[in-house]
Structure prediction request, 1013 residues.
Amino acid sequence: MSAPRLLTRPVAALALFAALAALPPVALALGDPFLVVVGGRMLVFAIAALSLDLILGYGAMVSFGHAAWLGLGAYAVGVLMRWGIDDLALQVLAALAVALPVAALTGAISLRTRGIYFIMITLAFGQMAYFFFVSLSALGGDDGMALTHRSTLAGLRLMETDEGLYYVTLAALALAFAGLWALVRSRFGRVLVGTRENALRMQAVGFRPFPFQLTAYLISAGICAVAGVFLANQALYVSPAYMSWQRSGELIVMVILGGIGNLTGAVAGAVVTIALEEGLARWSDHWRLGFGLLLVLVVLYSPGGLTGLARRLTGGRE
Amino acid sequence: MLRASALAGLLLATVSATPLLAQSEPVKIGVLVTLSGPPAVLGEHARDGVLLAEKVLGGKVGGLDAEVIVVDAEGKPDVAAQKARELVESQGADFVIGPIFSNVMGAIAGPVTGAGAFLLSPNAGPSTFAGANCNENVFVVSYQNDQMPKVLAEYMNTQGIGDAFLLAPNYQAGQDSLNGFKQQFKGSIGGELYVPLGQLDFSAELAQVAAMQPSAVYAFMPGGMGVNLVKQWAQAGLSNIPLMSAFTVDETTLPAEQDAALGMLSGSNWAPDLDVPGNAEFVAAYRADYGRVPSIYAMAAYDSVMLIDSALKAVGSTEDKAALRAALKAADFTSLRGNFAFSSNQFPVQDFYLTKAVKRDDGSYQTSVVEKVFTDYADAYVGQCPLK
Amino acid sequence: MTGLFLLQLLNGAQFGILLFLVAAGLTLVFGIMDFINLAHGVLYMVGAYLMAMFTAQTGSFWLGLGLALPAVLVLGLVLEVTVFRRLYDRPHLDQVLATFGLVLMLSEGVRILWGSAPLSVPMPAALSASIPLLGPMRYPVYRLAVIGAGIAVALGLWWLITRTRAGMLLRAGASNRAMVSALGVDIGRLFRLVFAFGAMLAGFAGALVAPILSVDPGMGDNILILTFVVIVIGGAGSIKGAFVAALMVGIIDTVGRIFGPIWLRAVMDPQAAAQAGRVLAPMLVYILMAAVLAWRPAGLFGRAGAR
Prediction:
């Protein structure tokens, strides 16, 4: 299980970020500015997938309710905008102020369980959040809330253009990536991975896994809620559909497809998944057939997802 | 690992390789409905309605070359919002026909109208767009969501039914539907039950109904939930209590409900046997081309294209948006529903009927007009809409 | 009121048994082979679609059932040989991704073959009556048959696993694969049989509920989550646990959504009670699961520390 080592090398991540940064001018040069919008979606889901990878890849905590944080973040924007508060920083703070206490409570309960039981108890909390917002007429219920404009950044309407929103999202992604990068290399990260590999041994050397796991769970929920803030800005719409279990499943698929336990894989997984959906949906209404087949083939012939594939292509060592 | 990013780049390139055709010449009509996943059948009906209309018009709409671009909304509001922007901004659609579901409407209306295109809804008609937030570039060709339940409430009033039991799934459209019913119904409400969205088994609700023995039951139970309710209704021995519903017994669910639904009453603005000019030809052509009996989703989508056709004929091009808007609002086309006009909020003024599920001569099923309940009926929100 | 309450208990139990029918195959595959199969729901769906096709072609419910079951068994075998057997030794997450891919493929395949519109399976004439029960309320005979089938499957599985040689080998193979192989038992063949049998159970459940439920491309998704809830509450791998948990889920869901608002009215004003009831009803099952797992982290009958 030491495979993730490979992609800790920064070159892959730097290349990926360089490609993402170059996307808007390239899209413009190709005469298809709409690619920026697709790219923006990729970035949002890359942030969400990154956050999931922290607990799933490094902590072996497979959350099947992660989309709930995405939804909470989006609703923070919706509610604040209704009150006339457009500032992005305040919205991010509000998203965190809602997500973190909820995550502390559900995390404390969920972390009593492991393996499939953890998967299902997080699903249970995710479903509760989903049904809560579906039933809540005050916030539009199932019909959701339409937003009339995007958030402002320090009073500036920087994000009103697609390019502006794209680069602000990219900055958030880079920030999340750098933060998590440092985190997983810190003592905290090593304890987290140690707990994943052998919880008993970690306890024997004097680490109680629970505080580390809960902290990781909180960080993960917080980052995903921030992704939700950007999702609301992307779609200019907030809906309980962001919290459905299918959405949580898609996040898991992105992380596994990219290759778990290395942050670059999560970003690549999100980018490739969205690109595939976009590309395949243009071919046929039956695009899910091809997408499903591809997932099966990746698992059968490329263990470790895209990063596993990359490792074999680059010589398989390390 | 560089190659992995190269792979990502390649995928991006595939996406971008879709050619951006030169703007203008043909009129572009986007169709944005849910075409994948479980609820796809409604979107398919609507898409086929558009394609049939285009075929009937000989590939031209309003005498101009037309291109129909069909896009899957995937039933996800955020995906739909993005696809809507792509349709109008990148592919240059002048009109977008969609969506099926009310919760997608809120997500796509902004992007479509913001870019100056017209949105024509072949189904969703949420009250938010009928009242204060009505939009000059949104035309709802179908109905307003509250109207169907009111048809049944009014029918029950005329039948002297004094008490009714209500059933709906627990989400916004379900609550709107029951509220609409209660506004119109003069009798007493014996009870109301909201069931969780996606519920499979109705035995508990049916036992409550059997215990209460109401004079009638009104249900709003769309899609597969409706199929389950209708099949389980007769099995629970409730045939003696009339089940009247909206969006529960129609041409999309009847193939599965079959004999269990026969005789059940619904509220509708149209039925395949509605006796107005052109309707019989439409039903026959649709059945010949797509192998099924058309539903109101197919009908309203067909009407949407005919409406665009009439407006373009009057104006001659897509350049003058104001003239086009006025021409659309004039609704000078032959609707499959007969009488059709727009209120100031750009929702229809039309007749509503009580319909009954019947078996056709060829063994398939359809709804059939029993009687007209409302004539030239407008929705209740017109007054709140600032449009003139 | 008491009579109605008892009747709703029966309805809840009946829904629970229906859930157990689907959950039985899943908990078997998960418990014995340690395999997370998200495709279980689509196998259930395929069972219902095959049932719809065969009953339409033969005009008989029983012939349709007789043809649908072996057909799902064959599909299970084909999937085992082409995909699943390569995943037994892989991490759970690989299994999740691959079976999720299969869910997408099979669902779309079903749409291509049979279309998106829901299909119907007529009820067999012999079972289509309803018997009187408590005043004006009646109970469908077919649902009694479903209850009977569920109990028969539960007993059959219990006998198979605890009383037969195959069952003994399975239990041994689940706890120590290498040991059983060393004894000269072809563990691969054994697993193939379990998997195909589990697929057939899913298909059987789908075929059996087809006359009461809508046969549509979404039916697998809806049931999959509830099925996982059931096997997790019961303790993964435990047939007994799945049975108990299915009954619990069925009864709490049914009784809670009918009587919850009524009971809430006793402690708050009617408007608030109705609103709270509406918000809480769809969450009940998940609240139950979270509560059970918070109390017993490996489910009611699960082995602590396992998996």
Remarks:
- Residues 1-24 of chain B have pLDDT under 50 and may be disordered.
- The first strand of chain B starts at residue 27 and ends at 33.
- The first helix of chain B runs from residue 2 to 17.
